[in-house]
Design goal:
By secondary structure, the chain is an alpha+beta fold. The protein is built from 3 helices and 5 strands; from the N terminus they run αβββαβαβ. It has one domain: Alpha-Beta Plaits (2-Layer Sandwich), CATH 3.30.70. A 5-stranded mixed sheet has the order 1-2-3-5-4, sandwiched between helices. Strand 2 and strand 3 form a beta hairpin. The protein is elongated.
Length: 147
């Protein structure tokens, strides 16, 4: 669905326009998979995840679009300082996007974010890779069979 990719592109643009504690260039991907050798630098990915569509009124549909933001980087499990920094970055990204109007889609309303779990402990233990995902939901209203 084009609306899901439109929201993902708008989130990507906002992320790349933002200023965070450490610089990154986010990418929109369909397969957020990297070789371990590529993860020496922080990777920030935006992935269109899904949409729930429900009738809003006689004339309109309500779309709740989900977009995931993923962060990955190689880090030793005992490097608590770096893991703390990466968790703080996840929190900063959520705070930056919280209720922010998307310049490319001003009619998309930020509804919430979920980061559950905070990070993937299996990835950290087995691959020495910090992996976190932040799932965002944006609400849009449209007329049926429109965009």
């Amino acid at each position: 669905m084009k609306i899901v990719t439109d929201v993902a592109e708008a989130v990507l643009a906002e992320l790349n326009a933002g200023s965070f504690s450490e610089p990154f260039q986010a990418q929109r991907l369909y397969l957020p998979i990297h070789e371990l050798a590529q993860l020496t630098e922080l990777k920030v990915m935006v992935v269109a995840r899904g949409v729930d569509i429900a009738r809003s009124s006689r004339e309109d549909d309500e779309l709740n679009v989900q977009v995931d933001i993923g962060l990955r980087q190689r880090v030793l499990p005992d490097n608590t300082q770096r893991i703390d920094e990466l968790l703080a970055l996840v929190e900063a990204i959520e705070g930056y996007l919280n209720r922010r109007e998307l310049a490319a889609l001003p009619h998309a309303e930020w509804m919430g974010a979920i980061s559950e779990p905070l990070y993937d402990p299996v990835d950290l233990r087995e691959r020495h890779t910090f992996t976190a995902a932040l799932s965002l939901t944006y609400r849009l209203v449209r007329q049926p069979h429109g965009s």
